[in-house]
């Protein structure tokens, strides 16, 4: 009924088949034939052809009112599509744990907003179970996590590699025997400790120290326990906390040693009360990914955010691959 509405509207606007045909660049007989087909499909005439200029019938008035509403909707949709294509509007929902929400997502959001200031961005903080549920029900577009999500349900984009270090109170006597393994804050900050010239510490040496650990079920807690088990001891856990940043602060009071992400160490100021050690084993290394639903339609906003993820990943890889040689200790 409305496929050829522009022809009906042009006749209505000009009150003449001849003038309307000229404006539409078709012949007058062709225009008349199309109008008649529309009228036949409706069952009533749209124009009173006995008058000059042409007048609308009652049915014609209803048709024109409806056509004008459709034109408005089409224009609004076209404007919205143009805004989305130019990212003059849009939404992006991101989720992450306390560590990632505090130290990784804000710089990414800032860079994205600099490029696309009109996109509305929402951040959600939670644990892995909460974030995966929100991602699964489409409340979030992306979740950044170092936990492995089901690859059948979620696609992923690598953001960076993460290493788990051991932060030990500087007043611990064992540090005197392990000076050649110690890392400075700058070693961690600049990632020079990743070079083979920096040896991993024998973790067994810390078996008598008190440990500050994250709560059971946390991936860092699980990895720390596996590292200790492989070294031949069970850690003496004197305090369990929910967040890495809190455990890090507790360790800085020289209460005990803690397993800590190098991402967190690089983001916070140095603690003169701590020394750091590189750890060996698969449990000390993990990948950080941005996850999104496999079958979810990727909006232009999501595609641009993935582009930013790749740029940041390439930049991190370049920095890690161009570290200067490090002298042995």
From TrEMBL:
Highest taxon of the lineage: Bacteria
Domain HTH lysR-type, chain residue ranges per copy: 1-57
UniProt keywords, alphabetically: DNA-binding, Transcription, Transcription regulation
Signal peptide: none
CDD domains reported in the protein's UniProt record: PBP2_LTTR_substrate
The keyword Lipid biosynthesis belongs to this UniProt entry's keyword annotation: no
One Pfam family of this chain: HTH_1
Keyword Chloroplast among record annotations: no
Family: Belongs to the LysR transcriptional regulatory family.
Protein name: LysR family transcriptional regulator
